[in-house]
Amino acid sequence: MAVSLVIGSQWGDEGKGKIIDVLAEKSDYVVRYNGGNNAGHTIINNYGKFAMHLVPSGIFYKKTKALIANGVLLDFETLINEIEVLEKAGIKVKDKLFISPRCNVIMPYHKILDRLYEEAKGKSKTGTTGRGIGPAYSDKVSYNGIRLSDFFDKKTFSEKLKTQLLLKNKILKALGEKELNQRDIEKIYFSYFNKIKPHIKETYTILSKALKSDKNILLEGAQGVFLDNDWGTYPFVTATTVLSGGINAGSGIAPRNVKNITGVVKAYTTRVGAGPFPTELNGKTGEKLVEQGKEFGATTGRKRRCGWFDAELVRFAAEINGFTEIAVTKLDILDNFKKIKLCTGYLLDNKKTGYEDGDSNFLLKVKPVYKTMEGWLSPTKGIKKYKDLPQNAKKYLAEIERQTGVKIKYISTGEKRDEIINL
């Protein structure tokens, strides 16, 4: 048995999709266990280019089964669209994709409330994806959620939806929004449910048998460590846990079963939406990273904020998650930089401090301490052997290892599946 976990180690968008796609080739099961369609994993392979938001990336391999476990929020429209896109591309989904009946469902009012809450906050808005994630998770923990299993009994579903609309329509009306009609929602959502019904199966049972049968399981994390609801830059975070410990609640897999935890990091740092960003670059250098890295969100299309690699962030991420290795992506984006900076820590009032020493307001005040390194000014795109990397690129990677305390296992040198160095 080998259970491996892949986690984003910055603010999401680290290139997890590619690393998962590479590792999925030798996996019997690939499992999504947290988040919802606010996460986007971009996959480029022989079938084409895909932006996956709910269906696990392992779906592309014939022997690999893809599981959406109980910790994931379901957006019916997104899920159905992904299934249709995959099938149109010739990828088998039947008897390969399984969805836990324990998943909570994003309802129409969740998306409306997400938008209304952001509008009400004005300049203090959080910068959500607008997918209804926060309100849906809020309902889940306040016992107001609707689960996939509720759709199997129309009477149960109807009663639960009636209760929720009694509550939600009052809020919508108070905020100047049109009230929702129960009959309309039931008609649409049951048509959605019938399309995904063949894929619904208890994923805990599948995984439990897989563990006992020594199968290879790959857990596909969503978002990034610093969007974690407890340990991220709160309140500019997601609604759930992103950390390695979340696999137990989100999938039913005990932590002791996990043997490898891979932290994925970009060779620089990016962030979408509001919140502190100590190494952010607001001038020409930042724009150059945006342009060359094509830094636009796979989920929202929003331009990402860019900055130098923050080793202080990744050090903390490695410690709290227990990384056994790191995967560095987008090394090739730095090919044309004469000088490259790497943040080795923070100062506050001229005193050394760490990420864990404060909150979001604290991070707005810290000053990053940089180590300036010589760029390599030589193409690394498509390089597949470590020995073929420019010397200065090797020095840069060695510094990342030294500052974070974790060895690098994979180096991505391009978008394509085979543009990777395996150490």
What does this structure look like?
Helix 2 runs parallel beside helix 6. The protein has 3 domains: 2-100 and 200-262, Adenylosuccinate Synthetase, subunit A, domain 1 (Adenylosuccinate Synthetase, Chain A, domain 1, 3-Layer(aba) Sandwich); 108-196, Adenylosuccinate Synthetase, subunit A, domain 2 (Orthogonal Bundle); 264-422, Adenylosuccinate Synthetase, Chain A, domain 3. The strands form 4 sheets. Strands 6-5-2-7-1-8-12-16-17 form a 9-stranded mixed beta sheet, with helices on both faces. It has helices at residues 16-24, 76-88, 108-121, 133-141, 154-174, 182-196, 203-212, 246-251, 284-293, 311-321, 360-365, 391-404; strands spanning 2-8, 29-32, 41-45, 48-52, 65-68, 97-99, 216-224, 258-266, 269-271, 305-307, 309-310, 325-329, 339-348, 351-353, 367-374, 408-412, 420-422. With 423 residues, the chain is of the alpha/beta class. The chain contains 12 helices and 17 strands. 33% of the residues lie in helices and 21% in strands.
Looking at this protein, list some descriptive labels.
423 residues; alpha/beta; Adenylosuccinate Synthetase, Chain A, domain 1; Adenylosuccinate Synthetase, subunit A, domain 2; Adenylosuccinate Synthetase, Chain A, domain 3; 3 domains; four-stranded mixed beta sheet; globular
Topology:
Layout: E1 2-8, H1 16-24, E2 29-32, E3 41-45, E4 48-52, E5 65-68, H2 76-88, E6 97-99, H3 108-121, H4 133-141, H5 154-174, H6 182-196, H7 203-212, E7 216-224, H8 246-251, E8 258-266, E9 269-271, H9 284-293, E10 305-307, E11 309-310, H10 311-321, E12 325-329, E13 339-348, E14 351-353, H11 360-365, E15 367-374, H12 391-404, E16 408-412, E17 420-422
Parallel strand pairs: 1-7, 1-8, 2-5, 2-7, 5-6, 8-12, 11-13, 12-16
Antiparallel strand pairs: 3-4, 9-10, 13-14, 13-15, 16-17
